[in-house]
Design brief:
This protein is an alpha+beta fold. It contains two helices and five strands.
Amino acid sequence: MVVIRLSRGGTKKRPFYHIVAADKRRARDCSIERLGYFNPIASGGEKDKTIELNMERTQYWISQGAKASDRVKQIIKMHSKVAKTEQTSPSA
């Protein structure tokens, strides 16, 4: 069974997570496809993005029967909120 979950990277006390599609029976770092990333300690500035996610590929895997972990569901929800606000805000 395919799941969409987080794969931890980064160094000690500075986590960085890749959002991946992976086989549930395999280890955390064995992935099928990398879908994006989540950086919980980013400042959220122009250069530091907290979340980057390829929604097309994520929706593809979900349509194929992949289950998202609880934390990934929250990240998808946060990403969609941010994307909506970026679309409605006026461009400078």
